[in-house]
Amino acid sequence: MVKIIPFKGITYNNKKIKDLDDVMSPPYDIISEKMQEELYKNHPNNFVRLILGKQFKTDSKMDNRYTRANKNYQKWLDDLILICSEKPALYPYKINYQLNGQKKEMNGFFTLLKLDKDYKLVRAHEKTLSKPKADRLNLMNACHSNLEPIQLLYMDKKNKIQKMFQDSINNAPLIDVKGYDQFNHAIWKITDEKIISETQQFLDDEILFIADGHHRYQTAINYAEEQMKKTNDSSETASFNYRMVILVNIYDEGLAILPTHRLINLPNIKEEELFKSIEPYFTIEKNTIDQSKATSSLVKEIKNKITNEEKHKFALFFKENNYILTLKDEEIMNKLASDRSETWRNLDVSILHKIIIEKGLGITQETIEDHVKYTRDDEEAITYVQEGKFDCSILMNATKIDELKTIADGGEHMPQKSTYFLPKMLSGLVMYNMDKQ
């Protein structure tokens, strides 16, 4: 049974902060060094100081980004920069944004979700990596809080939950800000016990799918197991057995998935050797576009060439040349991944990793963290290679929501960074402090 409960959310105090826009932050995992610097300059209480503080050469076990995060966190609570709700609540969340010139609106809500350590009711579709889990565990140990939410999807064809919330979100929002993405983010607060109870009952028999936050979800499980041993508290209601999440209806029309492109760091890569190893599987077309064009024009041209609903197509971008790869036959994947389901074998991201990254580039699961990085920004996938930051990049098409659901339902995992949901949740709207429940 899926169990959700309301919680006493920690929020910024708008009586202390003149403009709440200035203290909000992107999620930690999409903050670049440049963006981190900008966020630091935006405001002394910007949320980045908690979720992704700066690192220094003088850092030690007693003074590092995690200890400084906790020091800032406790000070902001003491100074009432951050305030705690007096009553447990659910927090409806609305994001208004534009995608490709179209206006969109996504609805969800913040709640606490009881951890499902066996992933029976909470389905994951991606594997996790060790370094991000260690990083988030260090932060959770320092602050005893969920500073950022995990995004999960539930199924509600008739949109019953949002209809129950409707009267509450007709009132003025608790927080209404413009994020780094120029999207409008607003949250409300529901303490009505009847609405909360009906929401809990609706979700009782649901299966949830992790959309964004696989590392944070597994980190929450690891943290709970550590705390259980440390405190000798095995009660099901212990605060560490719950995780702050945002639940979004999988049928919400404002939900979109974008591709995550691969950036390859492999200095000894030779184009001829790569093509020799993947030519049996792909038709390789040298792309004759003019690389002196503006990056936006290059991106548009490349994406037009790989966009295809029926064929599996990728763009391989080098500093001097770029190529369009088209899979010759899906049957190839039956031999290379016979232990996987048909849906998994036919995913673009599976084909990319199994053939191009593993067979072509010789990058294994054990070495992938050293050689493969990720970007959701189309232009970055090109400029980073042009600037020499990476040796090549692979541009791909997005995974579909139906594919995600089928993979998760079957208990399988896609390769890392297979999905990039839009809109991204803004960080700093509400927090869950385990010591204040």
Short description:
The chain is α+β, with helices and mostly antiparallel strands. The protein is built from 15 helices and 21 strands.
Task: Based on the model shown, name its key terms.
9-stranded mixed beta sheet, alpha+beta, 33% helix, Conserved hypothetical protein from pyrococcus furiosus pfu- 392566-001, domain 2, 437 residues, globular
How would you describe what is shown here?
This protein has 437 residues and is an alpha+beta fold. The protein folds into two domains: 4-256 and 423-436, no CATH class; 260-397, Conserved hypothetical protein from pyrococcus furiosus pfu- 392566-001, domain 2. The chain is built from 15 helices and 21 strands. Strands 1, 4, 5, 6, 8, 9, 10, 11 and 12 form a nine-stranded mixed β-sheet that branches. A six-stranded antiparallel β-sheet has the order 15-17-16-19-14-18. α8 (271-278) crosses α12. It is globular, with a radius of gyration of 23 Å.
